[in-house]
């Protein structure tokens, strides 16, 4: 009989690619992860990992087993949701992850509505970059999260997650002097931290315009980004949500590109009463954002 906990480790290895990353995400030691995966190989009766020095790759048998694991874990989530629906009142902990501008503008009103309707539901919020949200959902450190993609930085579908559109925004070129994007090849640029979707979007959008941006400053808060633009420190790409407190002296030029925000949760968990309540509150809050 295959152990679901060991299968989950294999699934995480397929996403995170190293045993050390799996161990850190799931609060194991690397040696414990290796031992559990070795035990899973014995239970499966076929090789699951190919080891080259310190690196490991999944065999075709392991890839197939991960696909089965995704379905098994989704069915377990669905079973948990159905059991929770039997209870007459929402209780327990609901962990929500969102990016900074959404915490202020969308999540805060949703939290007020959730707390009022379900006073015994304990809400916990984590502010994080959307690129980190899928890993956190799979690791069960979040239950609901806002994830994003840009036209120049699409995010591949994750078989462990379900998602639904929440809203989309225009991306603006923020500068002191309005000029087309292609004319900023010699400008200094302000971008988010490398590894974030916003940073990837900036680099790829500039490359599509024919140049690689010369990034001088890194800042993840769009208020800080716009302040740097106002101070003459460079130009930046800023989604509409980040431009609400645009300082004097900064011009915003709408570009033919969009940022799309989705609600995400583990596959099978969408009808869990707490998750369903959060989905409804967040959709209603997002619908009021432009009123």
Q: How does this structure look, described?
A:
With about 290 residues, this protein is of the alpha/beta class. It is built from nine helices and ten strands. It has helices spanning about 5-15, 20-25, 30-45, 60-85, 100-115, 135-140, 195-210, 220-230, 275-285; strands spanning about 50, 55-60, 90-100, 120-125, 145-150, 160-175, 190, 215-220, 235-240, 250-265. A six-stranded mixed β-sheet has the order 4-3-5-10-6-9. Strands 1-2 form a two-stranded antiparallel sheet. It has a two-stranded parallel ribbon with strand order 7-8. Helix 2 packs across helix 3 and helix 5 packs across helix 9. The longest helix is centred in the N-terminal third of the chain and has 27 residues, at about 60-85. The relative contact order is 0.15. The mean pLDDT is about 90. Belongs to the LysR transcriptional regulatory family. Keywords: Activator, DNA-binding, Transcription, Transcription regulation. It comes from Nocardia beijingensis.
**Poorly predicted ranges (pLDDT <50, ≥5 residues)?**
none
Oligomeric state as shown: single chain
Head-to-tail CA distance between termini: 55 Å
Strand order in the largest sheet = 4-3-5-10-6-9
H and E string = HHHEEHEHEHEEEHEHEEH
Roughly what percent helix?
A: 40-55%
Per DSSP, what share of the residues sits in E-state strands of 2 or more residues? 25-35%
The strand count comes to 10
SS-derived structural category: alpha/beta
The description of the largest β-sheet is:
6 strands, mixed
Number of helices: 9
Mean pLDDT: 90
- Overall 3D shape: flat
What Rg is obtained from the alpha carbons, in whole angstroms?
Answer: 22 Å
């Amino acid at each position: 009989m295959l152990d679901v906990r060991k299968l989950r480790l294999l699934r995480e290895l397929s996403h995170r690619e190293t045993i050390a990353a799996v161990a850190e995400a799931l609060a194991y030691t690397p040696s414990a992860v290796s031992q559990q995966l070795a035990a899973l190989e014995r239970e499966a009766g076929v090789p699951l990992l190919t080891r080259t020095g310190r690196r490991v790759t999944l065999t075709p048998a392991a890839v197939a087993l991960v696909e089965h694991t995704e379905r098994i874990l989704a069915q377990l989530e669905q079973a948990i949701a159905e059991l929770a629906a039997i209870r007459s009142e929402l209780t327990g902990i609901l962990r929500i992850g969102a990016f900074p501008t959404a915490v202020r503008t969308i999540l805060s009103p949703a939290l007020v509505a959730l707390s009022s309707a379900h006073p015994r539901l304990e809400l916990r919020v984590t502010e994080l970059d959307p690129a980190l949200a899928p890993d956190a959902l799979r690791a069960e450190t979040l239950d609901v999260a806002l994830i994003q993609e840009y036209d120049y930085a699409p995010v591949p579908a994750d078989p462990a997650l379900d998602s639904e559109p929440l809203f989309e925004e225009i991306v603006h070129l923020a500068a002191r002097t309005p000029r087309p994007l292609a004319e900023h090849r010699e400008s200094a640029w302000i971008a988010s931290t490398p590894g974030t979707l916003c940073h990837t979007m900036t680099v790829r959008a500039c490359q599509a315009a024919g140049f690689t941006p010369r990034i001088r400053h890194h800042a993840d808060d769009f208020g800080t980004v716009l302040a740097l633009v106002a101070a003459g420190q460079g130009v930046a790409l800023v989604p509409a949500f980040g431009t609400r407190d645009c300082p004097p002296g900064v011009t915003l030029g709408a570009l033919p590109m969009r940022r799309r925000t989705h609600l995400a949760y583990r596959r099978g968990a969408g009808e869990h009463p707490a998750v369903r309540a959060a989905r409804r509150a967040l959709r209603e809050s997002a619908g009021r954002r432009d009123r």
